[in-house]
Amino acid sequence: MKQFLTDLRDLGRVKVPSSLHSLEADLDASTLEPLLREIHDKWALRELIKADPMPELDVWVMADAARLLYRLCQFVVCREADAACIQRAIEELPLPGETANDIYSVDVMLRYLPDLAKIAKRVAMGDPLNDALTELGKAWPLSSVGMPSVGAVQPEAMILDSPVLKALYVDRILATNDVRRVLKGPIYDAVKAAIGGFPQLAPKIARYVKATPASRLGR
């Protein structure tokens, strides 16, 4: 597990064994805390995350999300894992996040969910892992922006109420041109404001916003 996290921090790509095994001895949040914080700090610096108030990183929640990400990567290469096995792994991460801190801490790891979903879909269409990733994406909307299978989901109020989470959510919508996420209300307004006079930054979103006034959304 430590090597998995180290590769994630340094390379942005990972290797996992093809055989499933227990992670209990490999994932002690207190032992891995420095590494988990380094992963977070590197990501936060790259994203230029600065706002007040900032969500607090919960290393224990992040460790749970790291374990789930590890398992999901294993399931991509370990094709004998059935739906029940996959579901048990997902249920180890409490759903949904109870606080903005939970959502933020989980997202440090689950932000890789869209990329993982693409790989899983290429490996095997109709595999139970694909359905599980879709449901996971619906449960964690901040981390799943850009996943076509998730469709239109309403972000939790905790995302909208946190300046950092809301900014991350809007930025990802623009970066992935995920029109499905431009729902009526605060997100529509935030996306429209973010585009401003620079529609070239997200042309698909800009065309949608221009052609779909807020008064027509949801009809």
- Biggest beta-sheet profile: none
- Supply the number of helical segments: 11
Contiguous uncertain segments of 5+ residues:
215-219
What general form does the structure show? globular
User: Residue-averaged pLDDT, rounded?
Assistant: 84
Query: What's the number of extended β-strand segments?
Result: 0
Write the layout of secondary structure elements.
Blueprint (H helix, E strand, L loop, with lengths): L1 H9 L18 H18 L12 H19 L5 H9 L8 H11 L2 H11 L4 H12 L17 H5 L1 H14 L9 H10 L7 H9 L8
Key traits:
219 residues; mainly alpha; 11 helices; globular; disordered C terminus
Task: Give a structural overview.
The chain is mainly α and 219 residues long. It has a domain at 2-150. It is built from eleven helices and no strands. It is globular. It starts with a helix and ends in an 8-residue tail after the last helix.
Question: Gist?
Answer:
The protein is mostly helical and 219 residues long. 58% of the residues lie in helices and 0% in strands.
